[in-house]
């Protein structure tokens, strides 16, 4: 049974619950994993959330590089370890690795070296996530946001090299549309899909634009996808847009 959620701050968990969403997807950066005092102060809101925090996005802080000469393996490994422990305590099931800035290959860095670094980071995540109940979903980002893993197929190629059950891939309707990625890539790579992000024209609320939702939903149905679907977009009038979008999502994907 598909479950619907929204990417929002933890302070909006109650609001999403009131409108009928099944879960909230929050930013991992907001847990303040590198500051023990702030982390202890922040964690209770997630442990006691009125709506389950089943997914996290915004994986790495913007100043933490995971490819290129600025990669600090000790810092990155420590962050991943703390993140895995925290998400396990909170009860999350999905961790989304977008972090376009962190994984952007800087000028002068060889593609092969960056890809090798990316594989090392993914292997560290696989190691730390084992036994936690959390699955990593690599998020392909459009070419305006990063220059590494811009399509579902590219993300799957990395996941295949890791070949671990905790490392899978996300399909994001917005990024796919931005780069005109064929929708049938979803069924082609169905065995690797662990999570879905959606938006609509202008990266606004689902149901407000012209994205080909019927075709996208059919691909998910053909792929046998029955996991979580999170809206990740700008909202101007939450009290109006959240319930309207949820009704749209249930109608399209139900």
From TrEMBL:
Superkingdom field: Bacteria
Residues in Xylose isomerase-like TIM barrel domain copies: 17-251
Keywords: Isomerase
Protein name as annotated: Sugar phosphate isomerase/epimerase
Organism of origin: Paenibacillus taihuensis
Gene Ontology MF, one: isomerase activity
Family annotation (Pfam families): AP_endonuc_2 (PF01261)
Entry-linked InterPro entries: IolE/XylAMocC-like (IPR050312), Xyl_isomerase-like_sf (IPR036237), Xyl_isomerase-like_TIM-brl (IPR013022)
């Amino acid at each position: 049974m598909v479950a619907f959620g929204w990417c929002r701050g933890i302070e909006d968990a109650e609001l999403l619950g009131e409108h009928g969403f099944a879960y909230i997807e929050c930013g991992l950066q907001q847990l303040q994993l590198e500051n023990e005092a702030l982390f202890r102060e922040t964690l209770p809101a997630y442990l006691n959330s009125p709506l389950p925090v089943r997914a996290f996005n915004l994986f790495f802080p913007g100043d933490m590089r995971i490819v290129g000469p600025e990669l600090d393996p000790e810092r990155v490994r420590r962050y991943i370890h703390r993140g895995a422990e925290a998400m396990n305590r909170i009860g999350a099931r999905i961790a989304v690795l977008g972090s376009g800035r962190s994984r952007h290959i800087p000028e002068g860095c060889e593609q092969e070296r960056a890809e090798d670094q990316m594989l090392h980071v993914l292997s560290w995540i696989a190691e730390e996530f084992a036994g936690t109940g959390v699955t990593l979903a690599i998020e392909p980002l459009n070419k305006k946001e990063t220059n590494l893993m811009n399509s579902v197929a590219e993300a799957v190629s990395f996941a295949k090299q890791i070949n671990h059950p905790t490392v899978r891939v996300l399909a994001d309707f917005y990024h796919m549309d931005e780069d005109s990625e064929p929708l049938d890539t979803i069924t082609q790579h169905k065995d690797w899909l662990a999570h879905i992000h959606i938006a609509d024209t202008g990266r606004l609320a689902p149901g407000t634009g012209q994205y080909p939702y019927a075709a996208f939903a059919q691909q998910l149905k053909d792929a046998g996808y029955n996991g979580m679907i999170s809206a990740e977009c700008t909202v101007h009038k939450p009290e109006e847009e959240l319930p309207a979008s949820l009704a749209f999502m249930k109608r399209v994907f139900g």
